UniProtKB/TrEMBL annotation, chains A, B:
Stated name of the protein: O-acyltransferase
Pfam family, any one: MBOAT
UniProt keyword annotation of Membrane present: yes
Description of how the protein assembles with itself and partners: Homodimer or homotetramer; both forms have similar enzymatic activities.
Cellular-component GO terms for this entry: endoplasmic reticulum membrane
Catalytic function, reaction form: 1,2-di-(9Z-octadecenoyl)-sn-glycerol + hexadecanoyl-CoA = 1,2-di-(9Z)-octadecenoyl-3-hexadecanoyl-sn-glycerol + CoA; 1,2-di-(9Z-octadecenoyl)-glycerol + (9Z)-octadecenoate + H(+) = 1,2,3-tri-(9Z-octadecenoyl)-glycerol + H2O; 2,3-di-(9Z)-octadecenoyl-sn-glycerol + (9Z)-octadecenoyl-CoA = 1,2,3-tri-(9Z-octadecenoyl)-glycerol + CoA; 1-octadecanoyl-2-(5Z,8Z,11Z,14Z-eicosatetraenoyl)-sn-glycerol + (9Z)-octadecenoyl-CoA = 1-octadecanoyl-2-(5Z,8Z,11Z,14Z)-eicosatetraenoyl-3-(9Z)-octadecenoyl-sn-glycerol + CoA
Membrane topology: Multi-pass membrane protein
UniProt keyword Calcium, yes or no: no
GO terms under biological process: triglyceride biosynthetic process
Region (Disordered): 1-78
Family affiliation: Belongs to the membrane-bound acyltransferase family. Sterol o-acyltransferase subfamily.
Active-site residues annotated for this sequence: H437
Amino acid sequence: MGESDGNGAPTRRRRATLSAGRGATLTPMNGRSAAAFQGTDAADISSKDGGQQGKRDRSLETVRSTSKSKKKRRNDISDTLSCHKTQQSLLSSASGYKNYRGVLNWCVVMLVLSNARLFLENLLRHGILVDPIQVISLFLNDPYSWPAACLLIVSNVFVLVALYTERQLSKGSLSELAGFLVHCINMAIMLTFPAAVVLLVPSVTPVGGVFVLGTYTILLLKLYSYKDVNMWCRELSNVKAKKLARSLSCPSAQHLNGGDGQVCYPGNLSLRDMYYFVFAPTLCYELNFPRSPTIRMSFLLRRLFEMLFFTQLLVALTQQWMIPIIQSSMKPLEDMDLSRMTERLLRLAVPNHLLWLMFFYWFFHSSLNFTAELLRFGDRQFYKDWWNSESVTYFWQNWNIPVHKWCLRHFYKPLLRRGFSKMISQSAVFFLSAFFHEYLVSVPLRMFRLWAFMGMMAQLPLAWFVGHFLRGNYGNAAVWMSLIIGQPFAVLMYVHDYYVLHYRQETD
Amino acid sequence: MGESDGNGAPTRRRRATLSAGRGATLTPMNGRSAAAFQGTDAADISSKDGGQQGKRDRSLETVRSTSKSKKKRRNDISDTLSCHKTQQSLLSSASGYKNYRGVLNWCVVMLVLSNARLFLENLLRHGILVDPIQVISLFLNDPYSWPAACLLIVSNVFVLVALYTERQLSKGSLSELAGFLVHCINMAIMLTFPAAVVLLVPSVTPVGGVFVLGTYTILLLKLYSYKDVNMWCRELSNVKAKKLARSLSCPSAQHLNGGDGQVCYPGNLSLRDMYYFVFAPTLCYELNFPRSPTIRMSFLLRRLFEMLFFTQLLVALTQQWMIPIIQSSMKPLEDMDLSRMTERLLRLAVPNHLLWLMFFYWFFHSSLNFTAELLRFGDRQFYKDWWNSESVTYFWQNWNIPVHKWCLRHFYKPLLRRGFSKMISQSAVFFLSAFFHEYLVSVPLRMFRLWAFMGMMAQLPLAWFVGHFLRGNYGNAAVWMSLIIGQPFAVLMYVHDYYVLHYRQETD
């Protein structure tokens, strides 16, 4: 408690102490209080500079202590007599006070407590709804047909086609144009065929459908990148500047596989190289990926544990938290009861957002790092610091680096090279991603609302607005807001339509 | 989108660019792509260094641009061919990344949204419960007896007694001991008389009672300080060191009121000085308070507005938010249904805490600053940065400075002087404040549970625990936690007992 009287007016006190000293020489204090203070003061000293003090001459010490005690006593009184000084309150603008680090802890504590409350309330109201077995039924309708699995096996065909085409092109037994056409057809089929299967085969569940289409989309992007890069390599080797080619793709062009394991152009067209790229956690092909020297076992196991843990958590929270809210929000949606709809939307926003955050960590940190570690893939930048993003564009550029990198390298820059303006190219990128968002949602659900598409396209005006009118923390808050509110809104829309489409008919 | 490819491996690219340059000197690019890039590149240049560039020699520019375009083209390709580099994910410990300022915004947004949801839900469930008229009934049972007001008027008697006694003491017509006794009796009555009235007169409402007892307690502390300081002054003037006395209480001892308005000892014993101290926003008496030069009108009005606004808000939130929760938590408390009790406790914690924060701002910033400005009282330090406190003691030392200052000056330090250990003195302070907390709650409610008392005393072990086991942010979080959970717990206890005592009997 001592430190908090350190801010008595120092100047006045100094004066007081001096005069107190002089006063002491003139006259002794009245016995009582003086005695009282010798006591404590002597104690102070002995405690202050412990043992070796005791060894000194006693009488000397007592003299010192008494004189000291008198000074101290005066000092005390002068302090206590004037205990106020002119100063401002911390919260009034006049005092330039700014340190509110405690507030962050406050926010965290409040969030934890209020969510603990929600969790408890939820348990009391619904009991335990978690049911791991149920998850399987999300992937399988009838256990004797595995359409999703079959589709995944088929996907290899397209990979092999792409590889074969490239080989022919490298040999020159296929013209650039022909090769280009083959690639286009191959990719067109990759896009349409699984969609058709998902739409037509009834035993594909929505979740299974999303899984399959997701895989095919990723593969599509990978093969597109594969084709582009190989084309660029041919372009470079057409340019007969050997130095350049060597310096770029391979230091020694004597034999195809250089001594230091650097691969150069035609040498990369192998099955091994192809499948490494297919499984590598990136969408952008490269002849010589940076590789990490070893597989760090502890790192690998930690990521594996995270993967398993978060999978469980995601399932549990969805069953226990999301589904009850969604079910309870069906009625307000049908009645178009606006105030209740808003209440349900906000109620859904929190779990939905938390699940999204967990999913982000689960996929972009745990899973991708796990794969990368397993394949000794060097580049682990799967996301950047999107949580600090102060503009919508910054968010979209940094939360999903593999896709962003692909868009930049194979879509945005080529458009710029073809002389389109930045504005148009950017819109085109958003349009593409909007298309794929819609593709990945509508097809598995077998219903074509444009919520996801519009959701993505709505990012453009939002980006413009935030970019022009909000700065710093306000921009950041706006981005968070759009994330927290935007997603559950789309979710509710789809769920509602899906519910109306399927269950209402049954009830009627 | 341009900036985000600034982190391709710089060394490799540099090499590539150089060799690209050399390569360009040897052989021309194949027409198509070269042409394609001259186009964009020329555009880039003219856009880059606008007007004066146009004035120069055209042919020169085109040459430059074409050579440049070749370089750029190679550069592009070299970039795009190697778009990965070995690096860690931000969230993995290997990358020493630490910047999470976005998280604070996230917390704020989440808090705002979830509370908006609660607010909406509350409105939907209860409708509007706010009723300003009801507030009056909290102070008045029957409009023809105003016991609280009468008590406040009576309080002046004690002030005058204290002043009269001091005058006698200063004249020496009353011995130190006699004066001390008179003061003690005076204060004893101040403590017991209002309590007796509140307990015996049925028309005193709990709120009215708290108000009266609060006022009396403040007055008690003030008068105690008044007595102490005057005693110290006498002690000093007994010490015949004129210099000392002058330097401390007054620069010129010729006449009692010095030229520069500095008052010295006997001269301060005037009605005016006494009542200034009574109304001044401090508990520690001083002969010459620091004064602010003028009354800043804008400041005064802003504080006034805040006072009125927060009063309304506090009442409204209590009626709309607190009371329904408290009512709904009565049943679980009776049934001792632990899980539901916890749920209700957490549910109550949020509004209770927010109301406490508002109350803090309303009282310690708005009201006290308003009074201080009105009285041109200089020292505005009514609180320090308790929100950053990392230990319980730090919190208690900094959230209520007037009381803390009083305890330090008139209770803690005197105890130390009498040779008690810090530990004991500190416990004594907590004991005192625990007593007054209990006094201010139990008497108005007319029931003697020891919840408040125990709540305060529980701070000692808590302080010990936090001080020994938690540091930095954890300590801070613990302090917040104790605030957020501790208060509503005590509130629930009292409300429950009060409810059982009064309403159950009616129902039976």
